[in-house]
Amino acid sequence: MLMLAMFSVSESELKAAHTHSNGQEARQLSEVAVNLAMSQIRKATSQNVGTNGWEAWTSQPGLVRRYSTTGVTQEAYKLYSSKHLVLRDAGQIEQKLIADVPSANWDLQPNRYVDLNKPAVRAASDGTPLLLFPIIDPRAQTGSAITTVGGFSYQETNLAGTKLNGVRVTGGDRQRVPMPVEWLYVLKDGSLGSLSEGGVFQGTSEATATNPIVGRIAFWTDDESSKININTSSEPTAWAQPTFFYDQDARYARYQPLNGEFQRYPGHPAMTALSPVLFPGQNVTVAQKESIYQIIPKVSTGGSLAGTRAFSDPDAAAVPLTQARRERLFASVDELLLGENRQPNKLGGVEITPDTVQRSSFFLTASSRAPESNPFGLPKIAVWPVSYREPLNQYRTPFDQMVMHCATLRTASGARRGYVFQRGWADSPTEDVGYAANSELLGYLKELLAKPNPGFASSAADTFAKKYGDDAPQILVEIFDYIRGINLHDGTLVKPTDKFNGEGKAQNFMLGYAPGSARPTNFKTFTDPRFFAPDPDNANADESGQTERQGFPGHGQVTPSRWTTGGVTVQGIGRFPTITEVGLHFICAADNTDDPNNPFEEKYGFLGKPGGGSAPKIAGGNAPEDRWYSNFPPRPNPFPGKNPADNVKYPLTDGFPYGKNQQHPGYQKQNWNHQLEANTPLQPGYRRVQARLLLEFFVPSAGYTILEPELTVRVTGLSKFLLNGQRLFPNDEEIIWSSRRAIHNGNQRIGGYGIGVTGMQTSRFAPARQPMPADNNWGSDAWEVKPATIPGGDRLCVINYDLLSNFVDVNVARDGSQPMALSSGTGTLTDTPLTLELWSGHYGRSVAADERAAAVVQTLNLDFPAAELKAPTLVRNTLPTVAVNQSTPDVEPVAYWTFYSKGAFGFDVESLAQNTTARVADQRGRFHNSQGAPYAGAQRPTVPRKGSFFYGFDYPQGGAKRTFRPRQLHGDSMEEVQIAEETEGCDVVQTTQIAHGDYRLSAALPVVPASMWKKHRYFGQRRLAHNFTKSVSDHLPGYDYGDETDLKNTLVGTTSSATYPVDRVPDFPYNDEAVLSAHRYGDFDNGVGPARDGPYINKPDEGNLNIITDNNGLGYFTETGQHRSTEKDFYSPNRLISSPAVLGSLPSRVLANDPWRTLLFRPQQGHPGGPPRLGGSNPPDHLLLEFFWMPVVEPYAISEPFSTAGKVNLNYQIFPFTHIKRATGMHAVLAGEVIHAVPTVDAAAYKSFPDSKNPNAFWGEGQSKTWHYKIDADKTLAQFEERFAEGKAFISASEICDIYLVPKGALGVNGKDQMEAFWSERRLTGDNTRERPYAGIYPRVTTRSNTFRVHFIAQTLKKARASKPDKMEIEDRVTGEYRGSSLIERHLDPTQSDLPDFATNAAGQTLDHFHQLRVLETRRFGF
């Protein structure tokens, strides 16, 4: 009995030992499956040195493909067990993949196939059966839209049309979704093979009695980047730069994201939604979002409360990240169950259960990472600038350092190569671009652009260098400058000791020109600093009670970079003004034509009526003294009571010019026009005119931070202007400098049209032009450029405006009908050549060691058109004038007749020497009172008030609203306006402008040729022939709004029933060249808030936190020039710039002079920047995105050196299980994006308030306006399914830009086929706005993964003695089994010693060569 017991125990222990041993052998055997998958990945992701050209690779669940340069699939590496692990039939691989499916009756062949998703049954805690699925829980598909995981479905039939046995799509616990793969058998010697259809072993070795089958393995590898990463995702709330007067844009302005709200930063991985899994099919509430934030690590609640709490709310504060930063990342999806306090987590108040986790595990991951290498497998360049100035820790923030870390590799020499553009000097055109590291990176990119793009080149000629020619380096320098111009005023670099107190400081103090002043040079921000003033009660005050005010000259300004490469000089755009329109503005300074309102009688033919042209002093006054007279010169002689009579010359008036009555107006000093020489009235039929040269400026990089221009304009060729054969300008060269008066409060401060034509004019002072002395402040020493390096004295004063002509007398005949001739020759009319030089900074100023001297930025050549012009007429304003001051009874002298600040009347020129004080309390000239009075009462418009910048009227162009109308006549016809021009007065303004209107092109040229200019279409035909504007379009009379026939020729083409608001008309020339170019592709940009649309470059938004007093509007829309920059509570690099897709507004054909064509990062039929299938050409522009990336550095290092976590793979198709669709990751990516689309019929509304008196009310669906749409994920992804149905995959993540984003709920839009029509009806939507969702999507998607999960089953086998060695027969036994999964990762060690310097000497190697594979975890299933 004892012996029997001993034998029984021994037998049990032996069985247990065998079981354990077999189990261990099975576990070891499973490593074969993992190693096999790793081997496939390693081979698939390495360049094949034997292949001609470069290759590209992509990954997806179950597969890695490798493509030739031409885009043909060369090889498909299966990541699942199959008899053929690699497919190599180029051109046939897609069809073979579709056909590579398990047999329909796979379940009847258990020795050939195994279901990797076969469930295990365990007992729950309550004793009920618990189903566990190793890969997919089929119950995630419930048949209900609000409980089925978003984007997930499965069916019985696969892509090959085969109905798969065992699939059950309904039934709860009875549901099954089998995932059968082939067994791979292992022989004793380690050889692998599979069974034929007849069940015979086939492999590299033969199965024999001495080398029998000892085990088998099966595996399938999931791509973790096809899932949603719970360590990077959360739940998004959309935010974008406010653009339209729409309620959602207003919410963008009011509820701006605070620091730490990563789920509101466009392009951030936290914008990828978890709701398709956690709250499928629901409109997620704020409470549900907050419950997600409480669970997900590194993300926290608070801030704007998902866009519901205003940033100005006293309770608003940055998200409390202290605790969040201490949270560890999830190690697995299972950790969703419990919080760090070991209590169950809750979603929307409901506890997360193990069942919820299991059903979610196929869609969620805790580890996903994608490589950041370009199409050639080389390092991408980060689109975030860092400073190279020393000491680095003072010029770089911790964010900058992190970005630098993510984009840096050690080289074999031990040096470090940063793939980041660096900067140091905003005011130098050469220093930054010539910095050695930058120059090498630009050369690196240029070399790559000369090669065919792997996967997309139909021939060796399909390169960016071939497509764009010399514009290829031009595009590169534009990109360099764009990146260089990001984050111009980093508030985190402004220390309390750097906050310059500007309270009470004069503007010349800021320039450093006032005695005892000096401009700060020790600032750490890239551009000049802001100044502050103590104002603790201000709502915008900081923690120390200081309020941020305006900037020093140069704040927000970046001089364009100039790069010479391959003998070609190309220039970026920077953030710098360019000149877009040049004009001559003539005014009538004195007039002696027939004036029926002049009450005096003409006595002498040589004199005409005494006083000549006149205007009323006081409305309704009829006495001679109630008028102003333009032709009374100073000091008439003889003067009654002072000089003897001259009866020879004046026999009819007692020997005196106006008779002997000393009270005659001609003898009164206040009536003397000092613009006439003493005692020298004009002859009858003559007018005295004076002109100024006007320059209109435009800054393509419009947005925040505000801009304080600092530049110099040097004009040569002025001496060639002749008017009626007389020299117009006294000097050939004149120079004007910017001061802090170059720009004004309001929308002007953000660039764009802001400087306009008036910015460099207003509050300037005129030079001496005989007989007028210089204005009092002209040449003021306090404003003089100092220390100066050039001679000039008073002419070096920055508030001078010396582009002022001589006084010229023109014979216009007594009736004023004779034109004046503008020319550069005295014979035939000849155009006048001019040269304009734009300089950065103040030309002629000596700079300190830590400053950079002014340099030429741009030379503009033009031929100013010659023509016969109607002469300006004397302005006869009938409005009551204003008293100079209350202490005198005098009325203010006429200001329209002069450019001089002292006016032309009312002073004694003999006692009014330069820089002396006199009765000039009001600045009167055309330089000072530039604002008109567009409206007089509520009834109808009227003329502008005193000293208007221009005087004249809007022409009656059918359908165009007119602000400036005649006083006496309505001006509803051209005849009435022409009468008013003679009777009420009118200036002459004639211009030439950049012909095509795309000022990005001209801004990017070092030298603008004369051929790029074209005279205004009404040049010489109308007195006012111009498109001069300020920040708005209706502040200057005569602006060419166009008429009803021109509506189709506006920037986008409008209609009579839907026209632009009169103050928001884009500055656009009406000529065929401009219209045809602009209408081809719609490559214009929408302006920020109220800013007019135009040729902008989509400047990254640096934020505006300005709080409007008394809640009288919103920042971005009201008081747009009052800017409060973002600091620690709002600042983040990933808030400023989402991805390289923001580069889409850069012009792509500058040197080819092809306007209104920018880089294309969206689908558009017929655009040359698109792919051939959409009518474009190879390589498509979007491939440029693949050379750049934006590292994600918050809330932790989501990006590591050349990889980023949390990206979602576009290639979500599952091989070989094409009966399963898991588009969940893409649903998550699209969930937080918004399509902004403005119908063309809403042109009158999109840039204006519904009620002009209520700046807090905006348009919305309540007024039947829908300008924002969510993305319909299913209709959008139908385009993916079309591709997948052919077995094809996305090669590049940038191909998302070829996919139409289909708006949800848009009438008549069922898919991509209606999208061209959709956008054709919404032409007001600018290129930057249309590309905005792509900029947010692109950084969150990939086509290549670094992380994979291998699901496996391994069995040890015992062959029966009687069975055949090369077959599996019923007698053979399974002795051990191990099921589970292993997580594997490709990783790059940035410090490995053998890395080359890829920028200068890659030596044919790629980053792929240096990636290693490692196993991160292994989990056993069912235990």
Would you kindly provide a brief summary of this structure?
Residues 534-564, 611-643 are annotated as: Disordered. The chain is α+β, with helices and mostly antiparallel strands.
**Residue-averaged pLDDT:** 89
Total number of helices: 21
Strand ordering within the main sheet: 12-11-10-13-56-57-58
Helix content: 10-25%
Cα Rg: 39 Å
InterPro entries: Verru/Chthon_A (IPR019840)
Protein name: Verru_Chthon cassette protein A
Region (Disordered): 534-564, 611-643
Description:
The protein is of the alpha+beta class and 1423 residues long. Among the domains are: 390 residues, no CATH class; 202 residues, no CATH class. It is built from 21 helices and 58 strands. The strands form 19 sheets. The protein has a seven-stranded antiparallel β-sheet. Strand 33 and strand 34 form a beta hairpin. Helix 10 crosses helix 12. About 3% of the residues have low confidence.
Question: What's the helix and strand layout?
Answer:
Layout lengths: L1 H43 L11 E5 L2 E5 L5 E6 L7 E2 L5 H7 L13 E3 L4 E4 L5 E4 L19 E3 L25 E3 L1 E4 L4 E4 L5 E3 L9 E11 L4 E2 L17 H8 L20 H4 L7 H10 L25 H6 L19 E2 L2 E2 L2 H7 L3 E2 L3 E3 L9 E7 L4 H4 L2 H9 L1 E3 L5 E3 L1 E4 L12 H14 L14 H5 L2 H14 L15 E2 L5 H5 L18 E5 L11 E6 L10 E4 L2 E4 L6 E14 L19 E6 L10 E5 L54 E14 L11 E6 L5 E2 L2 E2 L5 E5 L14 E5 L51 E4 L8 E4 L8 E9 L15 E9 L2 E3 L65 E2 L3 E2 L32 H10 L4 E7 L4 H5 L3 E2 L4 E3 L8 E2 L46 H10 L51 H4 L51 E2 L9 E2 L2 E3 L2 E2 L10 E3 L1 H7 L3 E3 L31 E3 L2 H13 L29 H6 L6 H11 L3 E2 L4 E12 L14 E16 L22 E10 L3
Helix pairs in contact: 10-12
